[in-house]
Amino acid sequence: MEHYDVKQEVTDRYSLRGRVFHRLREDILNGKYAEHEELKEMTIGEEMGVSRTPVREAFRQLELEGLIQIIPNKGAYVTGITQKDVKDIYMIRSLLEGLCARWATEHITPEQMEEMEENVYLAEFHAQKGHWEQLAQLDNRFHDILYEACDSKMLEHQLKDFHQYVLRVRKKTLSQENRGNQSNEEHRRIMEAIRDRNPELAEELAHQHMINAYENMVRNGLNEAYDRPEESREDQGETSKTI
Q1: CB within 8 A of 86, min separation 6: which ones?
Q2: CA 157, 163, 164, 165 torsion-angle sign
Q3: Which residues, 6 or more positions from 175, have their beta carbon under 8 angstroms from its beta carbon?
């Protein structure tokens, strides 16, 4: 396995523990580790070029986020994000993104507004060309601009975390041509409502955007990320598989 020296990436922004945590969280959300797989402190420390202490500290933070479970005298095991978690995240996001869009109409700066407009126009261009990777990147950036424009570090942090949690399955479903075009059209309408200083409409559109995104996931790939459809697992009372 390629050696990764996490110490080389330490900046003022993150502690060593923070760097280990973010790397492990990304690996879990990207599917590097399977559900119920054990995470070994020594092995991860060697791979990342750190001692076991920052790994142990990162484990505790991952457990607080529900991504792993630490069993005393046994070890740390991956829990990950389940299909039900994805649904819960999108239902919560639908409310928070609406609030975010409402606040953005009050606080967005001219520079942020200009970038948001440019983002929508660039996404329309790449959608017409079928450049789905660029479209996904622009989609992510649109939401980042929106989060930053709400002028609430607490709301921005929460929404960015939720956005990261479902990024893996979003990449798959956003590559569908119809959803890529529809998603950007929804972005355009949100952008116009914010530009027109219409908080009620911006909130309604951003809320519905998340509902549409989740419904599209169900139609185009969410269930395929699991062994069996969600309804079957719920009927049998089984634990959802990790994305």
Answers
A1: 165, 166, 169, 214, 217, 222, 243
A2: positive
A3: 132, 136
Helix 83-107 crosses helix 132-149 at what angle (to 10 degrees)? 60
Taking CA atoms, 70 is separated from 13, 79, 200, in Å, by 27, 10, 44
3-class state of residue 77 by DSSP:
strand
- Residue 112 to residue 51: CA distance in whole angstroms: 41
Q: Which of 163, 161, 166 shows the shortest CA–CA distance to 225?
A: 166
Total length of the chain: 243
User: Could you tell me the two tokens for 70?
Assistant: 């630490």
Q: How confident is the model at residue 170 (pLDDT cuts 50, 70, 90)?
A: low
Mean pLDDT of the chain: 82
Measured CA distances, 137 to 40, 90, 175, 180 (Å): 33, 19, 11, 12
Encode pLDDT of 104-140 as tens digits: 999 999 999 999 999 999 999 998 888 888 888 899 9
- β-sheet bridge partners, residue 76: 39, 70
Determine the Cα–Cα distance for residues 97 and 101; give it in Å rounded to an integer: 6
* Residues 16-43: tens digit of each pLDDT: 888 898 889 888 877 788 888 999 999 9
Instruction: Report the run of H or E that residue 11 belongs to, with start and end.
Output: none
Set out the domains of the chain in order of their start, with CATH numbers: 6-78 (1.10.10.10), 83-225 (1.20.120.530)
Q: Which two tokens stand for residue 221?
A: 């790939």
Is the confidence at residue 8, as pLDDT, over 60? no
